[in-house]
Amino acid sequence: MDVTLLEATEDPERVICTAARNDYMSGFVGDQSFEEVMASIDGEGIEEKQETLIGHLLSHGHFGPFEHPQLTIAVKGISRACMAQLTRHRHVSFDVQSMRYVAFDDVDPAEVRNGEMVVVPPSASDPNWIGRNQKSGAVDEETVRERERVFTESVSRSVEEYQELLELGMAPEDARFVLPIGTEVNLVMSMNARMLMHVADMRAAADSQWEIRELTEEVLDIAADWCPITFAYYDEHMKGRKNRLAP
Ligand SMILES: Cc1cc2nc3c(=O)[nH]c(=O)nc-3n(C[C@H](O)[C@H](O)[C@H](O)COP(=O)(O)OP(=O)(O)OC[C@H]3O[C@@H](n4cnc5c(N)ncnc54)[C@H](O)[C@@H]3O)c2cc1C
């Protein structure tokens, strides 16, 4: 997969702090400099003051201010299974590559055997990989070779048959029914910092599937550069917390 930042709110932590200070000030934040807005917060310089306030907000569950900054990310080559998990999050906005308007008629089915077009899960080639609800534990090399053969033959045959249906004049929107759920998709998604923390609570957790966990970790790396105080705090104090009903 490829995860790329497209756009993000400039200076997100200034936005978070200004919005939060608005709640507790008699004056109007729109009339004051950021230094004035932050004057009563503990800390030597402006960065230390932001650390104090952001830490306070997150530790007290005051998450509203984190809804103001937003980021937009492009994701390439996740499976449609992963997309189905991701798009359950209702406060994230998505644009998903269409299989009605995009026909994968130029993919060489032989290349599908090498990992093109369909995501290959690590369990297809790693004998020690243990997934959720797996019937057995680690397996020997011979078994995993057989797994890889069955998987590879199945997905490349699906792509061949999909292309055959296109050649027989079937619309891509119907021919796609024979493609595997591991078929790759590209998408663009936008969410705010609060939602990102919620998605990470659920999808970076150990009980999530490896693919969405990997994607979430990549998004968290982007978030750590974009909104550093918030996501350093999240990483240190909140990540891996027990799932809750609400963020
Ligand atoms: C490990 C794992 C396994 C899963 N297995 C399954 C499964 O087998 N089948 C399945 O269908 N789903 C499954 N899910 C998806 C899961 O049930 C949620 O639908 C998904 O993670 C979206 O998260 P969310 O419910 O927090 O909602 P989000 O859409 O992310 O919304 C964020 C928060 O907003 C609030 N909210 C949003 N909409 C409403 C609403 N209409 N009413 C009240 N509050 C709302 C809630 O507090 C919610 O937590 C699984 C998720 C995980 C992490």
TrEMBL record:
<feature type="binding site">
    <location>
        <begin position="192"/>
        <end position="194"/>
    </location>
    <ligand>
        <name>FAD</name>
    </ligand>
</feature>
<dbReference type="GO" id="GO:0006231">
    <property type="term" value="P:dTMP biosynthetic process"/>
</dbReference>
<feature type="binding site">
    <location>
        <position position="203"/>
    </location>
    <ligand>
        <name>dUMP</name>
    </ligand>
</feature>
<dbReference type="Pfam" id="PF02511">
    <property type="entry name" value="Thy1"/>
</dbReference>
<dbReference type="GO" id="GO:0032259">
    <property type="term" value="P:methylation"/>
</dbReference>
<comment type="function">
    <text>Catalyzes the reductive methylation of 2'-deoxyuridine-5'-monophosphate (dUMP) to 2'-deoxythymidine-5'-monophosphate (dTMP) while utilizing 5,10-methylenetetrahydrofolate (mTHF) as the methyl donor, and NADPH and FADH(2) as the reductant.</text>
</comment>
<dbReference type="GO" id="GO:0006235">
    <property type="term" value="P:dTTP biosynthetic process"/>
</dbReference>
<comment type="subunit">
    <text>Homotetramer.</text>
</comment>
<keyword id="KW-0274">FAD</keyword>
<protein>
    <recommendedName>
        <fullName>Flavin-dependent thymidylate synthase</fullName>
        <ecNumber>2.1.1.148</ecNumber>
    </recommendedName>
</protein>
<dbReference type="InterPro" id="IPR036098">
    <property type="entry name" value="Thymidylate_synthase_ThyX_sf"/>
</dbReference>
<feature type="binding site">
    <location>
        <begin position="88"/>
        <end position="90"/>
    </location>
    <ligand>
        <name>FAD</name>
    </ligand>
</feature>
<keyword id="KW-0545">Nucleotide biosynthesis</keyword>
<keyword id="KW-0808">Transferase</keyword>
<comment type="similarity">
    <text>Belongs to the thymidylate synthase ThyX family.</text>
</comment>
<dbReference type="InterPro" id="IPR003669">
    <property type="entry name" value="Thymidylate_synthase_ThyX"/>
</dbReference>
<keyword id="KW-0489">Methyltransferase</keyword>
<feature type="binding site" description="in other chain">
    <location>
        <begin position="98"/>
        <end position="100"/>
    </location>
    <ligand>
        <name>dUMP</name>
    </ligand>
</feature>
<keyword id="KW-0285">Flavoprotein</keyword>
<feature type="binding site">
    <location>
        <position position="198"/>
    </location>
    <ligand>
        <name>FAD</name>
    </ligand>
</feature>
<feature type="binding site" description="in other chain">
    <location>
        <position position="176"/>
    </location>
    <ligand>
        <name>dUMP</name>
    </ligand>
</feature>
<keyword id="KW-0521">NADP</keyword>
<feature type="active site" description="Involved in ionization of N3 of dUMP, leading to its activation">
    <location>
        <position position="203"/>
    </location>
</feature>
<comment type="pathway">
    <text>Pyrimidine metabolism; dTTP biosynthesis.</text>
</comment>
<dbReference type="GO" id="GO:0050797">
    <property type="term" value="F:thymidylate synthase (FAD) activity"/>
</dbReference>
<dbReference type="GO" id="GO:0050660">
    <property type="term" value="F:flavin adenine dinucleotide binding"/>
</dbReference>
<feature type="binding site">
    <location>
        <begin position="85"/>
        <end position="88"/>
    </location>
    <ligand>
        <name>dUMP</name>
    </ligand>
</feature>
